[in-house]
Amino acid sequence: MESAPIYFDDTEVAFSYKSDAELKKANLIFSIVNNPTTSSIATSLAKLSLALKLPVKGLIRSTVFKHFCGGETIDQSEKTVDTLFKFSVGTILDYSAEGEKNEAGFEKTDQEIINTIAKAKGNPAIPFSVFKTTGLAAFELLEKVHTREKLSPEEAGAWERVRQRVDRICKKGFECIVPVLIDAEDSWIQNPIDELAYEMMAKYNKERAIVFNTYQMYRADMLGNLKNALQEATKQNYFLGAKLVRGAYMEKEAARASKLGYPNPIHASKEATDDAFNEGLAFCMENRNRVSLVCGSHNQYSNQYLASLLEKYGLKHGDPHVWFAQLMGMSDNISFNLAKAGYNVVKYVPYGPVELVMPYLLRRAAENTSVAGQSSRELSLIRKELRRRRNGK
Ligand SMILES: Cc1cc2nc3c(=O)[nH]c(=O)nc-3n(C[C@H](O)[C@H](O)[C@H](O)COP(=O)(O)OP(=O)(O)OC[C@H]3O[C@@H](n4cnc5c(N)ncnc54)[C@H](O)[C@@H]3O)c2cc1C
Asked: Ligand 1: does its nearest atom lie under 6 Å from the Cβ of 299?
């Protein structure tokens, strides 16, 4: 690695946007989810209480929801947008309501994403928008299009409506000059998502990267896919928007591959995923004349490595084509220290009705549960800052 121009240990910078009371609440939340037993009890109770319609929404809203989300609506998320931007951290309004499963729900989600773009227009505090294709299309339909099976006339009609929804979003992004990130999902529905992304790039990325596809570098074929995507962009003369992530569905991918008896598409080791991710960053930076990059990662080394690549090429920290992205409520030490040093930083800020955002919150809880009994990275940082405030103020 080149010399690292940034370090992430400054918890004072990381948590300066949080009051003592908020930090103590974060400590409580991460202490509960860190312990496998309390985490399992808390998540089961939350699921059960919501299913039984017990009045727990208020409690969830004022604790875990408040830590990881902006609010239940775009307007309610404004305070978070303003707070982050005070520290030069941008927001990506991420409508995280999961479970819309019919045409009316897909249309509603489409309109909601368009509203986030309208909100972002001309607003430097909201530099990107985002959507998940499973919010706009039935999973089974995506699965079928992925396999290239012949669609029935009804399915063909439904698929055309999905294309129109995606087009409406990307067109709005193009008109408002708000880049649109398309999240990556399960490998067995990803082909249609990729194809839609490239169709939209060919249409809307002629002057600049408006549409960004996501590359899950834990997939063994992904570095090759990224290189092919650049070749195609060069051939068709458009800009490639690339968001690089490691990938969130490793266990699901392994389980399905084993059940259906095909090779697991995920790299055989964490090191192989890490190498592919970092190589992907280097590839995007080498080809920065045509690629705009969003590095979606909480990995300290990868963020440092990208900062060192900017240095290597003599680019400004705030080069407009290079963005560092993290999730709200996580890795604030990376986000806020990068932002303080002048790099472009954005956070996904999920929002939506509490009960529909629950699956997202449960994933965050699982991610922060320690199997080996040690404190999670987040918990250690929060405790370090609490100690610093107690002793140092
Ligand atoms: C802004 C942002 C946007 C995101 N968007 C998406 C998205 O669109 N789609 C999506 O799938 N995910 C998305 N993610 C989640 C992301 O894919 C990762 O799950 C998460 O960020 C953890 O990876 P990391 O780079 O932060 O670092 P680390 O914590 O260093 O890496 C953990 C990751 O490494 C990989 N890994 C772990 N163990 C192994 C192993 N044994 N073998 C192979 N690989 C392994 C897995 O991908 C795991 O998630 C996003 C994350 C962020 C911050």
From this structure: yes
